[in-house]
């Protein structure tokens, strides 16, 4: 057996490298470190933050996680007996640690969970760097390999986020370090520690069971000449038993209380279906997984591995390579079992392929051994140039991921619910009051921002609204922008049963009276002070009219919230199946710009003798004076339509 080469490094090196990562993280993440979950995959990330808030509110029982949403996405088969928000969620250890910090500070701030995820990731990266050094990589190439991981766009984005994949992956990196240390020093405690860390990673994020099994298989394949194989297998059996026991417990929680998180396999229906889904995933996410420079570095690593195998690969190198190959193979199988998720969620790559691909680049680094100072300088130039290129590519991706777009309804809803806690508190709404949110877009974002427990209707249909009205709630909250266009359009009779309590210009608070019969218009439910209206009796446009100007107003605003109301009627309307949007574009020079569009096609989805179009667009707070507001119809679908009694009206709301 070839003796493993143990790389050397100074005692200060880990601390200096960790400090470097902190500085780099500050440059990348400082503007967003204190932000509420938003932008890409805000739904999933806000559900993870809701777990932390649930622990904070419900007594810090680690084994009974909960969110503010009292009706789980996947309810138990026997139905829900008590609405307490408890959910199965594997082992939400990062969220639990965040809740402990919340208890110490008395504040429910998302920065705590973001920071815990970030620090976990940085510790994992530091240990990845040390692993590369222990296997013989020079400092420059160990740095390059670690920044390869840091600058992977998907890793960078979630390193400053909320999902448990980053802490689990970090535990995988730390486990890898102690595994290599075990291979080099043969102290059983390091193997036990490596297994424990991988098991903890799998408890936090179950797909990390794959590298745990891969590590055990590597030791079994290399069993000859290993005097510790029997003890290793006993330790492996113990840790696998722990995982299975906790998995059974978590399934029991799901069967009793339900779950906000998917625990079911979503496989491809056939091999051809799997290929098509993977092709879609590659099209959607290939530059989110890695940039072109990353793929080039992987190719170079494969060349170095070939050189290593031809020259002086030791047992540590071979075991790491086998671990990586087994991990990739398991990830391919996992991609088949969860094929329907990969095109939609880039973080499934972190749970599967990322760890074995990161391990793959380590062994070949030891081939690069400078013999002269000039060679060492050249390696540093190569490493720093490659790192800069990968970091720059990741930076550009992050800017796009944090950008807001007019079509992002999740981000629009988050902005509408910002400040809603203070709004409800000013109305003396009890903190224990249960709120039903109609057309919520996400399961926990409105409830988190209102700091109240309750229920959400995400897919707004008459059936879903009607079912939700039987839930035990005290108040209903609806965004003004969707009151008419999504909620009342689906269930017009609801207007009779809602009694408006208050409105801040973005959301309305209502009580529900199932026996009420007084009909109310959607404008009355909005509780707005209307002014500066513009009425057009008839407005016809055809396929040649791409833009139809409705109003061009110079609006002098105050600190009061201002919004736009649009209403129109169409008798015997055509079927509008292609693009037709109401657009509001507000600006003042180069200092202020606000753009929002509303898709009008849903109003025409059902064939009827007439159609009432009702839209509400809130403007940002404190718009500058003399803001110019253009409102127009955008007709990219080349529709032909006549609108009657068309009203464009501005409204103001007084702060409670």
What key phrases describe this protein's structure?
Jelly Rolls; alpha+beta; 3 domains; four-stranded antiparallel β-sheet; 656 residues
SSE topology sketch:
Elements: H1 13-29, H2 42-57, H3 93-105, H4 110-134, H5 139-150, H6 153-159, H7 165-185, H8 188-204, H9 209-221, H10 229-257, H11 271-289, H12 292-311, H13 315-337, H14 348-351, H15 354-360, H16 373-401, H17 409-417, H18 420-426, E1 435-438, H19 445-450, E2 454-457, H20 462-468, E3 475-479, H21 480-490, H22 494-497, E4 498-503, E5 507-512, H23 522-526, E6 529-541, E7 547-555, E8 561-571, E9 581-588, E10 592-599, E11 610-618, E12 627-634, E13 641-653
Parallel strand pairs: 1-2, 1-3
Antiparallel strand pairs: 3-5, 4-5, 6-13, 7-12, 8-11, 8-13, 9-10, 9-12
Q: How many distinct helices?
A: 23
Overall shape: it is elongated
Counting helices, strands and paired strands, the structural category is alpha+beta
Report mean pLDDT, rounded to a whole number.
93
The number of strands is: 13
**How far apart, in Å, are the first and last alpha carbons?**
78 Å
Strand arrangement within the widest β-sheet reads: 2-1-3-5-4
Residues in helices, as a percent range: 40-55%
State the assembly state of the protein chains: single chain
**Low-pLDDT ranges:** none
Question: In percent terms, what proportion of residues is strand?
Answer: 15-25%
Biggest β-sheet description:
5 strands, mixed
Number of spatially distinct domains: 3
Rg computed from alpha carbons, rounded to a whole number of angstroms: 29 Å
């Amino acid at each position: 057996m070839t003796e493993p080469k143990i790389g050397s490094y100074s005692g200060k090196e880990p601390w200096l490298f960790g400090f470097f990562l902190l500085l780099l993280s500050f440059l990348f993440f400082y503007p967003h470190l204190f932000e509420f979950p938003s932008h890409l995959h805000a739904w999933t990330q806000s559900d993870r933050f809701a777990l932390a808030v649930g622990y904070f509110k419900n007594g810090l029982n680690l084994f009974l996680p909960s969110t503010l949403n009292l009706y789980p996405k996947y309810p138990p088969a026997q139905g829900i007996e008590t609405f307490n928000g408890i959910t199965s969620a594997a082992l939400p250890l990062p969220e639990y640690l965040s809740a402990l910090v919340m208890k110490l500070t008395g504040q429910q701030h998302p920065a705590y969970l973001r920071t815990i995820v970030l620090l976990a990731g940085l510790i994992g990266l530091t240990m990845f760097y040390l692993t590369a050094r222990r296997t013989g990589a020079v400092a420059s190439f160990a740095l390059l390999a670690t920044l390869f991981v840091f600058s992977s766009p998907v890793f960078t984005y979630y390193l400053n986020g909320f999902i448990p994949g980053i802490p689990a992956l970090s535990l995988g990196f730390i486990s890898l370090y102690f595994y290599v240390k075990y291979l080099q020093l043969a102290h059983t405690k390091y193997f036990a520690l490596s297994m424990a860390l991988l098991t903890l990673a799998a408890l936090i994020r179950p797909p990390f069971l794959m590298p745990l099994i891969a590590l055990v298989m590597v030791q079994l394949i290399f069993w000859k000449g290993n005097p510790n194989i029997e003890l290793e297998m006993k330790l492996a059996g113990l840790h696998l038993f722990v995982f299975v026991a906790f998995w059974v417990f978590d399934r029991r929680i799901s069967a009793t209380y339900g779950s906000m998180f998917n625990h079911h396999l979503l496989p491809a229906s056939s091999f051809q279906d799997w290929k098509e889904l993977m092709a879609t995933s590659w099209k959607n996410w290939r530059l989110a997984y890695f940039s072109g420079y990353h793929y080039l570095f992987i190719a170079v690593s494969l060349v170095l591995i070939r050189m290593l195998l031809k020259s002086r690969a030791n047992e540590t190198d071979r075991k790491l390579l086998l671990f990586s190959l087994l991990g990739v193979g398991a990830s391919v199988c996992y991609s088949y079992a969860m094929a329907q998720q990969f095109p939609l969620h880039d973080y499934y790559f972190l749970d599967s392929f990322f760890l074995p691909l990161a391990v793959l680049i380590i062994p070949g680094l030891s081939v690069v051994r400078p013999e002269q100072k000039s060679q060492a300088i050249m390696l540093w130039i190569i490493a720093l140039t490659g790192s800069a290129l990968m970091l720059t590519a990741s930076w550009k991706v992050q800017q796009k991921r944090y950008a807001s777009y007019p079509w992002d309804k999740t981000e629009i809803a988050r902005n509408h619910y910002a400040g809603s806690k203070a709004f409800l508190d000013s109305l003396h709404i009890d903190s224990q009051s249960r709120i039903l949110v109609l057309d919520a877009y996400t399961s926990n974002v409105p409830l988190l921002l209102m700091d109240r427990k309750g229920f959400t209707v995400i897919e707004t249909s008459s059936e879903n609204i009607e079912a939700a009205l039987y839930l035990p709630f005290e108040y209903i909250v609806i965004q003004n922008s969707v009151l008419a266009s999504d909620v009342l359009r689906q269930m017009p009779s609801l207007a009779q049963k809602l009694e408006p309590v208050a409105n801040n210009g973005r959301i309305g608070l209502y009580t529900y009276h199932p026996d009420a019969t007084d009909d109310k218009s959607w404008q009355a439910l909005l509780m707005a002070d209307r002014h500066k209206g513009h009425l057009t009796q008839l407005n016809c446009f055809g396929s040649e009219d791409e833009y139809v100007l409705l109003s061009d107003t110079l609006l002098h605003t105050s600190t009061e919230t201002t919004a736009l109301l649009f209403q129109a009627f169409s008798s015997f309307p055509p079927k509008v199946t292609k693009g037709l949007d109401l657009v509001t574009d507000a600006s003042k020079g180069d200092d202020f710009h606000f753009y929002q569009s509303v898709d009008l096609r849903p109003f025409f989805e059902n064939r009827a003798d007439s159609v009432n179009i009702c839209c509400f667009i809130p403007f940002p707070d404190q718009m500058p004076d003399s803001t110019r507001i253009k409102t127009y119809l955008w007709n990219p679908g080349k529709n032909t339509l006549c609108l009657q009694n068309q009203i464009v009206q501005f409204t103001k709301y007084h702060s409670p």
